[in-house]
């Protein structure tokens, strides 16, 4: 059977979502998928980035990483979208990328794929679930198949987010991923790869 094609498409200002995306890449590859890790372009004005040392540092460090294109979504059997929360919503940067997919949407090229999301916030809860639900509004319009993790493994009772995977960065916005979140990311990647594999024509 052909490998499942997994696209991990994310936005990150200060590196948290980037780290989660890298963790998902590793787990997706271990699950046997062909993985593309892609960053969506930054849209913020230079002065906004310059006003935040962590943002500037992360921007400089990752600005040459491969950028997401519509083809990455069309190519994929499963797509994981990652975004920090912005007032309980998807970042404008990721939303802008989604908003460029109209031609592919119109041709039905975004439908019948597996999708799920991951996010982060500074405070506990902090809008994490509403961010994922807001992201999934777009997936329904794609005709995509939202493969939420639910409580499909006992480990989900530890991280407690059935809508996706999320991390709390804390007051200094720098708390590292916990082993519980790490396990939830691995589970998410394995789950979307497994379900996408069942949908392949050769299955
Ligand atoms: C404009 C803005 C709005 C934010 N809104 C929230 C929020 O509503 N709740 C929250 O807990 N954190 C909020 N945050 C914090 C970010 O979600 C947090 O810094 C981010 O998840 C870190 O991810 P990153 O390192 O990948 O950028 C906000 C940050 C910004 C810049």
Summarize the structure.
The protein has helices at residues 16-30, 46-50, 53-62, 70-75, 92-99, 102-106, 128-142, 156-159, 179-199; strands spanning 5-10, 34-39, 78-84, 114-121, 145-146, 165-168. The mean pLDDT is 97. The chain is built from 9 helices and 6 strands.
3D structure, described in words:
With 203 residues, the chain is of the alpha/beta class. It is built from nine helices and six strands; from the N terminus they run E-H-E-H-H-H-E-H-H-E-H-E-H-E-H. The protein has helices at residues 16-30, 46-50, 53-62, 70-75, 92-99, 102-106, 128-142, 156-159, 179-199; strands spanning 5-10, 34-39, 78-84, 114-121, 145-146, 165-168. Strands 1, 2, 3, 4, 5 and 6 form a six-stranded parallel sheet that branches. Strand 1, helix 1 and strand 2 form a beta-alpha-beta unit. The radius of gyration is 16 Å and the shape is globular. The mean pLDDT is 97. Flavin mononucleotide binds at residues 12-17, 84-88, 120-123, 126-127, 169, 173.
């Amino acid at each position: 059977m052909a490998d499942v094609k997994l696209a991990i498409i994310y936005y990150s200002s200060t590196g948290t979502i980037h780290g989660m995306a890298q963790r998902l890449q590793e787990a997706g590859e271990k699950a046997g998928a062909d993985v593309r890790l892609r960053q969506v372009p930054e849209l913020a004005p230079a002065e906004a980035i310059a006003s935040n040392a962590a943002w500037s540092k992360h921007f400089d460090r990752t600005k040459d990483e491969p950028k997401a294109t519509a083809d990455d979504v069309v190519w994929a059997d499963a797509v994981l979208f990652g975004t920090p929360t912005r007032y309980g919503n998807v970042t404008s940067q990721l939303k802008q990328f989604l908003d460029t997919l109209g031609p592919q949407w119109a041709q039905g090229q975004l439908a019948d794929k597996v999708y799920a999301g991951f996010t982060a916030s500074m405070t506990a809860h902090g809008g994490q679930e509403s961010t994922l639900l807001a992201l999934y509004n777009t997936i329904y319009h794609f005709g995509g198949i939202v493969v939420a993790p639910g409580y499909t493994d006992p480990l989900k009772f530890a991280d407690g987010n059935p809508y996706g995977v999320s991390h709390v960065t804390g007051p200094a916005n720098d708390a590292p991923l916990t082993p519980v979140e790490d396990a939830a990311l691995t589970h998410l990647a394995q789950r979307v790869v497994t379900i996408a594999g069942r949908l392949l024509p050769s299955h």
